[in-house]
Amino acid sequence: MYGCLGYPRSRFYARPLAVLTTHKGREILRCTKQLAESKSLQVIYGDTDSVMINANVDSVSDALAVAADFKKAVNDQYRLLEIDLDNVFRRILLQAKKKYAAISLVERDGKFVEHLEVKGLDMKRREFCALSKQVSKHLLDAILSGDDAEASLARIHDYLRETADKMRHHTIALSSYIIYTQLGKEPNDYPNADSMPQVQVALRDIARGKTVRKGDVVSYIVTGDPQSSLPPSKRAYAPADVKADDALEPDVEWYLARQIFPPVERLCANIVGTSSTLLAQQLGLDLGRYAASNLVRADAANPADLDIYPLESQVPDAVRFSACVRLSLRCPSCTHSEAFEGLAAAPHRVSPAGLVCPSCSALLPVLSLVAQVDHALRIETARYYEAWLVCDDSQCANRTRQMSVYGTRCLGPKGLARDCLGRMRYEYGEKAIYTQLVYFASLWDVDRARASALSMPAADRDKIFALAEHNRLRFATLKSLVQGYLEKCGRQWVAMDTLFSKLGFNRS
Q1: What CATH number did the domain enclosing 432 receive?
Q2: Are residues 329 and 228 in the same domain?
Q3: Fewer Cβ within 10 Å of end Cβ, the chain: N or C?
Q4: Do residue 354 and residue 467 come from a single domain?
Q5: Quick one: which of 66, 57, 35, 30 has its CA closest to 46?
Q6: Are residues 28 and 94 in the same domain?
Q7: In this structure, what DSSP letter does residue 258 have?
Q8: Per-residue pLDDT tens digits for 88-101
Q9: Pick from 218, 249, 280: which residue ends a domain?
Q10: Cβ(239)–Cβ(197) below 8 Å
């Protein structure tokens, strides 16, 4: 009815009636939710014409009794509408609207049998290969198993490591890498055909004399070396071509980053004890990229979330500064460059007379160090003000400096505002640059080095204590340079005069 009333070209088009239909639907759904809450039932999801209720019982018979009682209470309120029991779920994972996986109890021969029901998740989409769907299925089995959370998480991490290892050793069947994509238009009509692997495969088939039309489903495998200068779309071939050419092998790193990791990350997004960085580590992916992704999400976290984060000063340096750019110092004498990790981490780089080159053992002049540190600070500051925006959906990979009129909404890689549901966040935000500046300052903090040395053996501790005192003035010069940048960074300051202004606590 709504489609006929709301479609402008329908003979029964009546927009006010279409609006009334949706309004009444929302009203009925809201009243049903209130009725459930009045009976001390928890509504965990509602959509259009259905509600999911947590019965807070353990047995199927008790759940059916709760459902029957609630069903009667709802149906007593309406004469022309009727609600009925659709499913009984033992456990459910709600990922987003219309996207969930649940253990459904289906009655067979008088007994209830568990059945995995999946709606809207990535594993139901055609553009993900069989291997990706297999991994998602295994993860759902672990998440919904009802086992101890730590044991389930350990199973997930172990399975991801085993899968990545098998992929890199090419022990997985070629058929598991096949991706299926339907053509939305004629292959020659795509304006951006160079970036679409299915179109490249279709055009290659047409050149061989095959007939490929709009609506056809194209199968392909992305092959080649990830270090290749060719984009993945140019390295996509039909499965028959890959089988016929021994030189063509699946691009394992591309599959791990684009086919395996995104669904895994979404399925495990709300699991305590793991993160994007940990999941990427199990798959052997670049940790820096996903650590930055975690920082982006932390910067954009919803204030209403109940997650508790430790103070940054309480986080170990190895964790806090893991995503920071290392300070590379160049020797003026031999031009050798090497990262400097601080006095406590690299005492062999420091002498009583100052920093020494690990290659030629020459002293690095303080003026040279000041110039190099200042150059590194300027690079990071310029990077911050470039204001690159990235999509927080790891599969999208949209990156731009253009601000959208849609706010933080991602317009997708094609700019059509319909290919991605992610949000655009700053790639290098205020928290990232502040942490970077604190890291640079920590490299020249002799008191911090002394505190770190307290847990070391006596000989190493005494050596660092002595070097710290010999170089205190030199390091203080470099630390003061970084402190000048830190004082201009507004993240560390709290405007107390405006903090509570909205509550009416203004200065007198």
Answers
A1: 1.10.3200.20
A2: no
A3: C
A4: yes
A5: 30
A6: yes
A7: I
A8: 999 999 887 888 89
A9: 249
A10: no
**Alpha-carbon distance values, 372 to 50, 84, 333 (Å):** 63, 72, 15
**Residue 213 dihedral angles phi and psi, to the nearest 5°:** -125, 170
Per-residue burial over 456-468, b if 16 or more Cβ lie within 10 Å, else e, is: eeeeebebbeebb
- Tens of pLDDT along 342-383? 888 888 889 999 999 999 999 999 999 999 999 999 999 999
Phi, psi at 243, each rounded to 5°: -65, -35
Comparing CA positions, the residue from 235, 231, 287, 238 lying closest to residue 261 is 287
With contact defined as beta carbons under 8 Å apart, do 335 and 449 qualify?
Answer: no
Tell me which of 70 and 495 has the higher pLDDT. 70
- Within a domain: 480: yes
Q: Which of residues 249, 280, 295 is at a domain's end?
A: 249
Question: What pLDDT, on the 0 to 100 scale, is given for residue 329?
Answer: 93
Of 412, 418, 383, 416, give the one whose Cα is nearest residue 397. Answer: 412
Give the number of other CB atoms < 10 A from CB of residue 41: 18
For residues 113 and 239, state if they share a domain: no
Distance CA(438)–CA(296), nearest Å, equals 18
Looking at the structure, tell me whether residues 370 and 431 fall in a common domain. Answer: yes
Give the number of domains in the chain: 3
For residue 269, what are the CA distances in angstroms to 132, 264, 433, 443? 17, 8, 25, 34
Residues 96 and 199 in one domain: no
The token pair at 394 is 């790891």
Pairing of the two strands 389-391 and 424-426 = antiparallel
* Residue 21 in domain: yes
Token duo for residue 469: 């005192």
User: For residues 354 and 492, what is the distance between their CA atoms, to the nearest angstrom?
Assistant: 31
Domain-embedded: residue 95: yes
Contact between 342 and 443 (Cβ < 8 Å) = yes
Percent of the chain with pLDDT over 70: 91
User: CATH no. for residue 71?
Assistant: 3.90.1600.10
6, amino acid identity: G
Start-to-end CA distance of the chain, whole Å, equals 61
Assigned domain for 431 exists? yes
Q: Are residues 180 and 96 in the same domain?
A: no
Residue that has been written with the tokens 């021994």 in this structure: 246
pTM exceeds 0.85, yes or no: no
Please give the DSSP secondary-structure letter assigned to residue 209.
T
C-alpha closest to that of 189 among 158, 213, 160, 210: 213
Question: How many C-beta atoms surround the C-beta of residue 448 within 10 A?
Answer: 18
d(CA 125, CA 181): 10
DSSP state of 427: S
Say whether both 188 and 114 belong to one domain.
Answer: no
